[in-house]
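Action item from last week, closing it out:
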Amino acid sequence: MLVRTSRASGSIVAAMLSRRMAWMVALVATFTMTVSYVDRQTLAVLAPDVTKALGIDNESYGWLQSAFSIAYLIGTPLAGWWLDRVGARRGMVASVFAWSVVAALHALTPGYGVLFALRLALGITEGPGFPGASQTVQKILPPSDRERGFGVLFTGSSIGAMLVPPFATFINHHADWRVAFLTTASAGLVWIPLWIAVTRNKAVRAQFDAAADTVKHPRPSLPAMLSHPVMLRALCAIIAAAPIFGFSQAWGAKYLVKTFSLTQNDVGTYLILPPLLFDAGAILFGHLASRQRRDEGVPARALFAISIVIAMSLALLPQVTTPWQSMVLMGIANAGGGGMYTIATSDLLSRMPPTAVSFAAGLLACAQSLAYVIIFPLIGRAVDQLGNYDGVGITLGLWALPGGLAWLLWRPPLRVTALPRARVAS
């Protein structure tokens, strides 16, 4: 692929990438999310044994999950701002290496305090993951493929959530939970050479590194981004959907052990299903939204409405009587949440100026973390007080409705324009 470089202007103009090469880069970016979720979800899968070994109750465990989310909440907007300047091609390598080291250190934790600190560190270092992968999809794929691209991107996290339960429980069964942490942390060492290999292509590098027109598209300030109707609308959707799949990811293992008296080593097979159906929902709704696209920036409202109804099925959790029934129900709800997440994210980023794509994606990840910070300790307290998860399932299922309706009924501008520019120190 030829690349033309203009020395006079200092800009790099790349011939359009082949669709095949663009998708290859997008798929490796998706693998970033897999690595991220492998490292962050290992604790959730091993929670029954880890909390027992370290003497951690349900509410304290909820705060452990919130510790990651608090750090991620702070880290992702900053990471997005940073990646919009240094680029995902360079920034993601540093991030994956850093969080892999932190994840491995979980194997050495002596108690609750150190584990809490490590969860904070993991949240900070994983901050660039989603903004960087989102920037990659937005920059590399043509507009007609972006909804599909984001649908596939979200499967990366679910693939990680599917791989961890059987793998971590297998290592835990044959060794212990400390060895399981150390082993899962090695996933980043597989991703780094893959990313370097696919981004060495000259046309790919030019596509990533081409300087954005900061005069035509000035970088917006944080207050301007947070107060814009397009961003506020997207945040409503993410905060509505996040608790649906966050519950199965962070609490699925403990739910199965408490509700159906399973052992730690039994839960791995069951926990594959919810993220698998999340993948199906994200891909299906992303594909259908791409097919429906007629004018860039016009969202698929009917598809989003269907995804809300499906996500709300989690409210039926008290009706299930077997472990597989519970996982099927959580999986169906996850499919709806995946649809909400894919459509809302693609719609938001299609409206953003190119200088703010990673920043906007970071703010979405921040909203997801905020939802987790609030709900995880509350889930732990509810279970400690009530002794079951029935009320939790009903509440989280109904929670999807208000934010989902806000996204549907809100009609913001088709594109974000005239955002105040962030001040840069001279």
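Closing note: The chain has a mean pLDDT of 84.
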